[in-house]
From TrEMBL:
Keywords: Membrane, Transducer, Transmembrane, Transmembrane helix. Gene3D superfamilies: Methyl-accepting chemotaxis protein, PAS domain. The chain crosses the membrane at residues 372-394. The lineage of its organism: Bacteria, Pseudomonadati, Verrucomicrobiota, Opitutia, Puniceicoccales. InterPro entries: Cache_3-Cache_2, Chemotax_Me-accpt_rcpt, MCPsignal_dom, Sensor-like_sf. One of its GO terms (cellular component) is membrane. Belongs to the methyl-accepting chemotaxis (MCP) protein family. GO terms for molecular function: transmembrane signaling receptor activity. It comes from the Bacteria. GO terms for biological process: chemotaxis; signal transduction. The keyword Transmembrane applies. This is Methyl-accepting chemotaxis protein. Residues 463-699 form the Methyl-accepting transducer domain.
Length: 747
């Protein structure tokens, strides 16, 4: 699938916007459970720590209340001791008093008689009416508050009977006649009685008649101080500590959780506990409460609690069914406050503490939801922006792509025109070509490239045309030089033939001169032999005249041939000069052609070298020909003179008789001249041989020049083909003013 640039830009922007959202959503999704678990554990730990702290706070409240009440009890006990001493002390009287004793723990009754208990000298009596004052106990209450009681020992076991008290029964009467057994109904020693019977003061919680008190029990000795006859009690009812109850009632444990207290080791109070919720206290029977497995978890908590160290907190997770039959889970934290025998604690329902877990989960879900919504919104916004920006970015690129296609197709003129038009299009009140971003730089670079390419193609086209013309001229020149060299070869052949003919003529002339010399000798012999041979001398003179004319003719032919050789040599010199000029022009054109003309420059230098050699050879030939012409002219002049002499001799043959001696002498004088002419002819023959050899070398140079010109022609042909290929390539590019391909004339 082929995507356009604007689509790629849009897709890239959408992907860039969507990827972080997807990664973030995946991270949120992956980290949700882990984070929820970690946060849940931390929340559970915080809840547990909070419940532990609340339990410790309750424990500390009890401890503080105990300390405050204990201070009050201690103060009351001090006041009671002080009053007892002021009244003269407690002692037993002589008279017996009848009592109907009632066990405060199990209401067991029994009758007995005991010595009267005296305060000073006064019997305390048996006052049941709360409206009537009782000595000492009411005075203590009036002074420091609380309750006070005087106990009398009933028996050896240590049962203690209330003989004077301001503790009231449920009916509102003074609780005299009730006693504290030394042994509880379960057979365990009573803590208060056993402590007092050891001679110690008991301080702490105590069950008094029908309720629990914070009390102090002090042993009362007889007048000798040896035997315990009873005990003195002061105490404050625990339920009367309003500040503690208000504090417990104000404790909030979640939405429906609560604080509670229940007895620890007190068997009488088991199965009941008091809980505090919504600012109120409520007593509840929990003896039948079980978890979903039927376990008496309350009893388990009690047993575990009484084994805890002071301030130590225990926990218990319980699953139970509510009144609607729904299974619920609660977490119980507890501690044991030993001074009051209280198991204190808090109960929290897990579903209430699951709410932070749910809120965390909902928060992660909301984050994920908002992330997705934000991602979608971002995707829409980015998509719109990417579409606009993609079009804005891709539009000039698309335009440049079209321009590049025109350049690739060779339509440079059209590309340049469109670029010039594009440079005038306003974009954001700024010309595209003047923008300073990458688009403007790209526009300017491509515009500059097209202009440079246009100029380059035009220059290359002109250069190719000029190079084509130069190559054509070089080809024509090579052809002309080749023809000239061929003509030069022909002329060289003609020169060689003429030289051969001159050489042959010179040899014939030499032979003739030998004959003439022989004739002259014969003539001299004849002349010396006598006048009788005058006719023969005349005939010989005529033959000599004929031979002289022949020699003159031969010398004329030699002069003409020498003149022809001189003309050919002149032609060869001109050809050499023209060749040198053409090779110079070829070297100049090759230099213009650059690397395409390197081969032509080498060939041109070789041709120039050969032309120089040819010019030197022609100069040598010209010099030889001039020397030969000089020799021939001298021979002709001598022969003319000789011919004139012969004619004169013939004309004067009749007169030779008297002048024979003179003729003989002249004939004899001619012999050296004939020898000189013969030597000149020999020299001429040698010069002709040298000319022939030079012409042969010139002919060889002509052949070499022809071969070089053939190579030069081949090179120019290759140059023509390269130029044609370059012109064909340049023809693909059409610039301003060029005709379309369909309108171009065929070449």
């Amino acid at each position: 699938m082929k995507l356009k640039l604007r689509h790629k830009v849009t897709g890239l922007a959408l992907f860039s916007a969507l990827l972080p959202a997807i990664v973030l959503a995946l991270l949120i999704f992956v980290q949700e459970r882990k984070s929820t678990h970690i946060i849940g554990e931390q929340l559970d730990a915080m809840v547990a720590a909070n419940l532990d702290q609340t339990t410790r706070d309750i424990y500390n409240l009890c401890a503080n209340a105990n300390d405050l009440v204990q201070l009050q009890v201690d103060a009351a006990l001090g006041v009671a001791d002080h009053l007892v001493k002021e009244e003269g002390g407690l002692r037993l009287g002589a008279e017996l008093v009848r009592w109907n004793a009632v066990n405060q723990l199990n209401d067991e009754k029994r009758g007995l008689e005991l010595p009267e208990m005296l305060l000073g000298e006064e019997w305390l009596g048996q006052n049941v009416d709360a409206a009537k004052p009782t000595a000492l106990v009411d005075a203590v209450r009036d002074m420091v508050g609380g309750t006070a009681t005087i106990f009398q020992r009933m028996n050896e076991e240590g049962d203690m009977l209330r003989v004077a008290t301001n503790v009231l029964t449920l009916e509102g009467d003074r609780a005299i006649g009730t006693y504290i057994p030394a042994v509880d109904p379960d057979g365990t020693p009573n803590a208060v009685v056993s402590t007092v019977m050891r001679g110690d003061t008991y301080q702490g919680s105590a069950f008094v008649v029908n309720s629990w008190y914070l009390a102090a029990y002090e042993p009362v000795y007889d007048s000798r101080g040896e035997e315990i006859i009873g005990m003195l009690y002061v105490g404050v009812k625990r339920e009367s500590v309003d500040s503690l109850r208000r504090a417990l009632s104000s404790i909030e444990v979640g939405e429906t959780g609560y604080a509670w207290i229940m007895p620890g080791q007190d068997k009488m109070g088991r199965g009941r506990y008091e809980f505090f919720r919504d600012g109120a206290a409520e007593m509840q029977d929990i003896s039948r409460v079980r978890d979903i497995d039927g376990r008496d978890y309350i009893e388990d908590i009690r047993k575990k609690a009484i084994r805890l160290q002071p301030g130590e907190v225990g926990t218990e997770d319980v699953a139970w069914q509510d009144a609607s039959g729904n299974v619920r889970y609660k977490e119980i934290h507890y501690a044991y406050f030993k001074p009051w025998d209280w198991v204190v604690g808090v109960t929290a329902f897990e579903r209430e503490f699951d709410r932070p877990h749910q809120e965390v989960a909902h928060a992660f879900t909301a984050i994920l939801k908002h992330t997705l919504i934000g991602a979608i919104a971002t995707l829409v916004v980015v998509g719109l922006l990417a579409t606009v920006l993609g079009g804005w970015i891709a539009r000039p690129i698309t335009y440049l792509t079209n321009i590049s296609e025109l350049v690739a197709e060779g339509r440079l003129g059209q590309a340049a025109s469109q670029m010039e038009e594009c440079c005038q299009v306003q974009s954001g009140n700024r010309q595209l070509v003047h923008q300073q971003d990458e688009t403007g730089q790209l526009f300017r670079a491509i515009l500059k490239m097209i202009r440079n390419l246009n100029a380059l193609v035009g220059g290359v086209r002109d250069s190719s045309r000029q190079l084509a013309g130069t190559a054509t001229e070089m080809t024509d020149t090579a052809r002309a030089q080749e023809g000239t060299v061929q003509d030069f070869g022909s002329s060289s052949s003609e020169i060689a033939a003429a030289v051969k003919e001159i050489s042959s003529t010179s040899q014939e002339l030499s032979q003739t001169m030998n004959k003439v010399s022989e004739s002259a000798r014969n003539t001299a012999g004849i002349a010396s032999a006598g006048r009788s041979h005058l006719e023969e001398m005349r005939e010989g003179s005529e033959g000599l005249e004929t031979a002289t004319r022949s020699i003159t003719g031969k010398l004329s032919v030699i002069a003409e041939r020498a003149q022809a050789i001189n003309a050919v040599v002149t032609t060869i010199a001109k050809v050499a000069d023209q060749t040198n000029l053409l090779s110079l022009n070829a070297a100049i054109e090759a230099e213009k052609a650059g690397e395409y003309g390197l081969g032509f420059a080498v060939v041109a230098r070789e041709i120039r070298r050969l032309a120089d050699q040819t010019a030197v050879a022609t100069q040598d030939i010209e010099q030889m020909v001039k020397e030969m012409q000089s020799s021939v002219s001298a021979g002709v002049m001598e022969m003319d003179k000789f011919n004139e002499a012969v004619r004169t001799g013939i004309d004067n043959t009749a007169q030779l008789s008297g002048q024979m001696e003179n003729i003989i002498e002249q004939v004899e004088a001619l012999t050296p001249r004939f020898d000189s002419v013969r030597e000149g002819m020999s020299s001429q023959a040698v010069g002709a041989s040298q000319i022939s050899e030079a012409v042969a070398n010139l002919n060889l140079a002509a052949h070499q020049t022809s071969a070089s010109l053939q190579g030069f022609k081949n090179t120019t042909d290759k140059l023509n083909r390269a130029v044609q290929a370059m012109q064909d390539g340049i023809a693909r590019f059409r610039m301003d003013g060029d005709k379309p391909a369909s309108e171009e004339e065929p070449s």
